[in-house]
């Protein structure tokens, strides 16, 4: 079986048909490209970062968005809005449990839970 994304060299030294040589010293190079992964390195890194946020929230929550940003910075991780969005809004295990007043306005509070019945009540 040929491996995707590689070049294969096939050498045919001689093929005989009814005692006569049809092909002699023919070299055939087969090259084809595999379908690229839909998960680029950047996309994988973003997913791993979102997973880290969810796991951190599970161990340290409930926490505000500012607490999560501080934890990311403390770990030397990049703070990216779209990764926070993925972790906090798209994870089925992270729930907004309210808001608190922060230095620049209201901050959302987030909690890890497998319970789907949590509501957006202020805490």
Describe the structure.
The chain has 123 residues and is of the alpha+beta class. The protein has 2 domains: 1-36, no CATH class; 41-112, Orthogonal Bundle (Arc Repressor Mutant, subunit A). 33% of the residues lie in helices and 34% in strands. The protein has 3 helices and 5 strands; from the N terminus they run ββαβααββ. The chain has helices at residues 41-60, 65-74, 81-90; strands at 7-17, 20-31, 63-64, 94-102, 105-112. A 3-stranded antiparallel beta sheet has the order 3-5-4. It has a two-stranded antiparallel sheet with strand order 1-2. Strand 4 and strand 5 (105-112) form a beta hairpin. Helix 1 (41-60) crosses helix 3. The N and C termini lie far apart (60 Å).
Can you give me a brief rundown of this structure?
This protein has 123 residues and is of the alpha+beta class. It has helices spanning 41-60, 65-74, 81-90; strands at 7-17, 20-31, 63-64, 94-102, 105-112.
List the helices and strands and how they pair.
Elements: E1 7-17, E2 20-31, H1 41-60, E3 63-64, H2 65-74, H3 81-90, E4 94-102, E5 105-112
Antiparallel strand pairs: 1-2, 3-5, 4-5
Give me some keywords for this one.
123 residues, alpha+beta, Arc Repressor Mutant, subunit A, 3-stranded antiparallel beta sheet, 3 helices, 5 strands
User: Uncertain regions: pLDDT < 50 for 5+ in a row?
Assistant: 119-123
Order of H and E elements: EEHEHHEE
What percentage of amino acids are in beta strands?
25-35%
Residues in helix, %:
25-40%
Which fold name is given in CATH as the topology of the largest domain?
A: Arc Repressor Mutant, subunit A
The description of the largest β-sheet is: 3 strands, antiparallel
**How many structurally independent domains?**
2
Strand order of the largest sheet: 3-5-4
What structural category characterises the helix and strand content? alpha+beta
Number of strands: 5
Instruction: Kindly report how far apart the N and C termini lie.
Output: 60 Å
Shape designation: globular
Rounded radius of gyration (Å): 28 Å
Helical stretch tally: 3
What CATH architecture of the largest domain would you give?
Answer: Orthogonal Bundle
User: Given this structure, which CATH class of the largest domain is correct?
Assistant: Mainly Alpha
CATH superfamily of the largest domain: Winged helix-like DNA-binding domain superfamily/Winged helix DNA-binding domain
Mean pLDDT: 77
């Amino acid at each position: 079986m040929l491996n995707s994304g590689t070049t294969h060299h096939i050498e045919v030294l001689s093929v005989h048909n009814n005692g006569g040589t049809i092909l002699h010293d023919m070299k055939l190079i087969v090259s084809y490209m595999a379908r690229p992964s839909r998960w680029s390195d950047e996309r994988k890194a973003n997913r791993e970062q979102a997973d880290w946020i969810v796991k951190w929230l599970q161990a340290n929550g409930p926490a505000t968005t500012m607490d999560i940003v501080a934890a990311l910075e403390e770990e030397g991780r990049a703070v990216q809005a779209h990764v926070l969005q993925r972790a906090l809004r798209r994870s089925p295990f992270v729930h907004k449990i309210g808001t608190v007043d922060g230095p620049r306005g209201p901050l959302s509070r987030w909690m890890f839970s497998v319970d789907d019945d949590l509501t957006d009540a202020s805490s």
